[in-house]
């Protein structure tokens, strides 16, 4: 009996092929766009978190107690006084793949003519690569070395973001000065030579950051061996909270709060909030798809009932029950949902294959413009089979729900009154 109803529904669908095609295409386009949007947002969130962790925050970070509340000011007090002791201790923690000290401070980059506010980062050139991935984005020159003084004593090598270098008219081999304040508050000028340029997928790195050897920064700022932070790389973003707990026990941050330990999620609250907001937008668009499908299917079923009044009367005269007639109309709507779902998911898979493997290069449009996400260059999507399966089932369910009321109305027609339309 079910097979008979399905064959009857399939035949009825193609009585008005143009209307059927338009209806299931409306469902298909809505589902395709929803799946593509979901892929875009998933990829946006994934790449943003990856860039943030690999280029800025690391998985877990240690500060001196009291630094966290003032971190936006980039203060030089309080500092971690013996950061290399902490690096050795946390290196023994299971799950730690690397640890490195950094000294981060605010400065003005002076090229002899203009000045630009930048974030200066003193790094250990040998250890930094165990935590961060900056070195692989060197596009000109080379990575700075600890005691590299090509211009003579007192002139250390530095790495600039490509956007900073272009803005200030600097190239590899050029010299510039960082103007800052020491730990005691005295003005200080640090002469540096450009060793190389970075072109990373993080706009903040490209547009406002200068990297110099840690020892040169410590000497210039008068902080001895101190650092503002120790950054730690773990086995993955999902294990950061557990690693934070292990490190807190190892460095004694719980019993003796001279240090504070933070997972990357605490340092990325703004980005995570934006990703969450985008997911809410995703759900709003899904509701819009629901409305479009609802209107299209209701219109199709209503027109069908009006055009087939005589047929409904004949079927009832032949003994079909109200439930069976309603089932035929709902089966037609369900088939529209299946056609729309299959078409929409197939189109989305084809689009995602290109988007996931090749992506969309927005460099000419955005360059190093900060759009709020630590992301630039090529945007790629992410496969999400759960979304595809859910979208297909959602499309079919919406069509069935939308057809329920008009199908019931058609089934309740009086047989004698319907036959008088002959």
Summarize the structure.
This protein has 422 residues and is α+β, with helices and mostly antiparallel strands.
Write the layout of secondary structure elements.
Elements: H1 2-13, H2 17-57, E1 60-64, H3 83-91, E2 98-110, E3 115-123, E4 138-141, E5 156-161, H4 162-168, E6 175-181, E7 187-198, H5 203-208, E8 209-213, H6 214-221, E9 229-233, H7 240-251, E10 259-263, H8 264-267, H9 269-307, H10 309-317, H11 322-357, E11 360-361, H12 363-366, E12 378-379, H13 385-411, H14 415-419
Parallel strand pairs: 3-8, 5-7
Antiparallel strand pairs: 1-9, 1-10, 2-3, 2-6, 2-9, 4-7, 5-8, 6-7, 11-12
Helix pairs in contact: 1-11, 2-9, 2-11, 2-13, 9-11, 9-13, 11-13
Give the overall average pLDDT: 84
Structural class: alpha+beta
- Relative strand content: 15-25%
Q: Note the main sheet.
A: 6 strands, mixed, barrel
List the uncertain runs.
149-153
How are the strands of the largest sheet arranged? Answer: 2-3-8-5-7-6
- The counted number of beta strands is 12
Number of helices: 14
Task: Name the quaternary structure.
Answer: single chain
Which percent range fits the helix content?
40-55%
Give the overall form: elongated
Distance between the termini: 28 Å
SSE pattern, N- to C-terminal: HHEHEEEEHEEHEHEHEHHHHEHEHH
Cα-based radius of gyration, to the nearest Å: 32 Å
């Amino acid at each position: 009996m079910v097979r008979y109803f399905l064959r009857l529904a399939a035949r009825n669908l193609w009585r008005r092929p143009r209307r059927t095609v338009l209806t299931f295409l409306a469902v298909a386009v809505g589902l395709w766009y929803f799946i593509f949007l979901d892929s875009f947002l998933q990829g946006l969130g994934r790449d943003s978190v990856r860039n943030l962790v690999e280029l800025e925050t690391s998985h877990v970070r240690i500060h001196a107690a009291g630094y966290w509340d003032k971190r936006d000011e980039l203060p030089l007090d309080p500092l971690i006084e013996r950061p290399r002791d902490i690096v050795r201790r946390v290196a023994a923690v299971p799950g730690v793949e690397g640890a490195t000290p950094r000294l981060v401070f605010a400065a003005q980059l002076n090229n002899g003519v203009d000045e630009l506010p930048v974030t200066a980062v003193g790094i250990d050139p040998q250890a930094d690569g165990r935590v961060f991935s900056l070195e692989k984005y060197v596009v000109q020159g080379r990575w700075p070395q600890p005691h590299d003084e090509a211009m003579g004593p007192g002139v250390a090598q530095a790495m600039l973001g490509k956007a900073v270098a272009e803005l200030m008219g600097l190239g590899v081999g050029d010299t510039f000065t960082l103007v800052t304040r020491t730990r005691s508050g005295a003005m200080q000028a640090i002469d540096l030579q450009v060793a190389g340029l970075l072109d990373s997928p993080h706009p903040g790195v490209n547009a406002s950051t200068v990297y110099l050897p840690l020892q040169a920064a410590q000497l210039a700022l008068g902080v001895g061996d101190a650092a503002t932070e120790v950054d730690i790389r773990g086995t993955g973003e999902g294990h950061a909270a557990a690693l934070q707990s292990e490190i807190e026990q190892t460095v004694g941050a719980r019993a003796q709060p001279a240090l504070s330990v933070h997972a990357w999620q605490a340092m990325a609250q703004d980005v995570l909030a934006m990703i969450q907001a985008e997911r809410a937008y995703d759900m709003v668009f899904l509701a819009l798809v629901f409305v479009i499908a609802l209107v299209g299917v209701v219109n199709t079923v209503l027109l069908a009932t009006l055009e087939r009044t005589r047929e409904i009367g004949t079927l009832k005269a032949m003994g079909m029950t109200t439930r069976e007639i309603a089932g035929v109309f709902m089966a037609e709507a369900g088939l529209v949902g299946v056609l729309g779902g299959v078409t929409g998911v197939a189109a989305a898979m084809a689009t995602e294959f290109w988007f996931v493997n090749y992506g969309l290069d927005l460099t000419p449009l955005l360059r190093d413009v900060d759009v709020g996400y630590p992301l630039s260059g090529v945007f790629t999507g992410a496969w999400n089979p759960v979304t595809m399966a859910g979208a297909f089932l959602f499309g079919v369910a919406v069509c069935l729900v939308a057809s329920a009321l008009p199908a019931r109305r058609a089934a309740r027609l009086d047989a004698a009154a319907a036959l008088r339309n002959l």
